[in-house]
Amino acid sequence: MTEPTQVQVEQLTRAFERFTRRFKVAEAAAATDNALNALDAETLVFIGNNPGCGMGDVARYLNVALTTMSSAIDRLVRRSLIERRRTEDDRRSLALTVTHKGRQAIDDHVAAYRELCRIMLRSLDPREQDELIRLTEKIAGTQA
Amino acid sequence: MTEPTQVQVEQLTRAFERFTRRFKVAEAAAATDNALNALDAETLVFIGNNPGCGMGDVARYLNVALTTMSSAIDRLVRRSLIERRRTEDDRRSLALTVTHKGRQAIDDHVAAYRELCRIMLRSLDPREQDELIRLTEKIAGTQA
DNA sequence: TTGAATACTACGAGTTTCGTACTATCTTGA
DNA sequence: TCAAGATAGTACGAAACTCGTAGTATTCAA
Questions:
Q1: Which residues of B touch A107 (CB under 8 A)?
Q2: Quick one: which of A111, A118, B46, B141 has the most CB atoms within 10 Å?
Q3: How close does chain B come to A91, measured CA to CA in Å?
Q4: Pick from B24, B63, B26, B23: which is nearest to B43 by CA?
Q5: Residue A18: which of B16, B121, B140 has the nearest Cβ?
Q6: How close A24 gets to chain B, by Cα (Å)?
Q7: What is the DSSP string of chain A?
Q8: Is A135:B124 a contact under the CB 8 Å cutoff?
Q9: pLDDT tens digits, A95-128
C-alpha cells in the first residue's frame, strides 16, 4: 500500500485507455451472431459457478433490479441454456442450473476470454509474462 | 512475442476475472445520477480529443451505426455538453466541439477513471507500480 | 452536367432495463 | 395458532437505446 505519484497515475491512465481500446476492438471482432448480451453472459457464468442458486442471488451479485434479472433468466431459459425449477424446501425460490447447451456456451465464452488473455501475454517476454500475472493477482486480491 | 503456456493463460484469465469484477463494482459505486451512458461518455471524450470532428468520424471510431451516433450526438447537444455546427467547406458535415460544461464533464470522467488507476497502483509497492505501467504500455502498444 | 458518393436526419421496430403492483410462500410473535 | 410482515419471484408498462430503411442536402467525378 504505497501511494502512487501523480505522474504514475497519469501514465497508467493513458496506458489503460489504449489497452482497453485495443481489447474492446478485439472483443467486438470475436463476437458471434448468437452471442449473449453482457448481462445474460454474466448471469449464465454465475449460474455455472453457483448451481442451484436463486434469482435474487444473481441479481444481488450483478447489481441489477430483480425484474431485470427475471427477464434475463427468461431469455436464458427460452434459449435452453439454463433450467429453472422450484425448490422443495422453499417453494417461493427457484433453483437455477445450466443445461448441457449452457455449459457449452460458457466454455465458448471462457475460451474467448482466455484468447484475449493469451493475446495480452504474447506481447511480453517470458519473465514479463509471469510478472504481469503476479501483479494482476496482487491487485485483484487486495481488499478495497 | 513469446507464446505463453497454457498454465499462464489460465492464471491470467482467473486473475483478470477477479480484477475486472473488483473494478466494475468500484465503478458502479462511483456512478453519479447525471452520469452518461457508456456510448455518450465515449463520444464526449472522443470529441474532446478531436475537436471539429464529424459524426462519421466518431461512429467509425466507436464502431456503431451512424444513426446510433446521431442519437448520441442529439442527447449530448440537448444536455449542452457539445456543439454541433455545419462546416463552411463541406456543408453536409458537422463540426463537433465540446462546450465548457462538456469539458467539465470530461474532467470528472477522467478524474473517476484516474481514481480507479490510483486504487490499482496503491495495491503495489513502488517498483511494482512502475513495472505495471511499463507492462501495460507494452501490451497496449503492441500491434495485434 | 448529371449520376454516384458522402454526411447526416427522420422514423419506426425490436430489445433491454426497471419501477409498480401483484401472487405465493414462509416466518415470527402474541 | 394465526395474523402481520418479510421474502422470492412474476406481470405489465414506460422509458431508453440501437439500428435498419428511406430520405435530404451537398459534393465529386467523368
A1: none
A2: A118
A3: 32
A4: B63
A5: B140
A6: 10
A7: --PPPHHHHHHHHHHHHHHHHHHHHHHHHH--TTPPPHHHHHHHHHHHHSTTB-HHHHHHHHT--HHHHHHHHHHHHHTTSEEEEE-SS-TT-EEEEE-HHHHHHHHHHHHHHHHHHHHHHHTS-HHHHHHHHHHHHHHHHS--
A8: yes
A9: 999 999 999 999 999 999 999 999 999 999 999 9
Q: pTM of the entire structure?
A: 0.91
**In three state form, how does the secondary structure of chain B look?**
CCCCCHHHHHHHHHHHHHHHHHHHHHHHHHCCCCCCCHHHHHHHHHHHHCCCECHHHHHHHHCCCHHHHHHHHHHHHHCCCEEEEECCCCCCCEEEEECHHHHHHHHHHHHHHHHHHHHHHHCCCHHHHHHHHHHHHHHHHCCC
Do residue A120 and residue B126 have CB atoms under 8 angstroms apart? no
pLDDT given for residue B142 in this prediction: 73
Cβ atoms < 10 Å from Cβ of A127: 9
CA dist A133 and A138 (Å) reads: 9
pLDDT at A144: 53
Which of B63, B113, B128 shows the shortest C-beta gap to A13?
A: B113
pLDDT digits (tens, 9 = 90+) for B76-101: 999 999 999 999 999 999 999 999 99
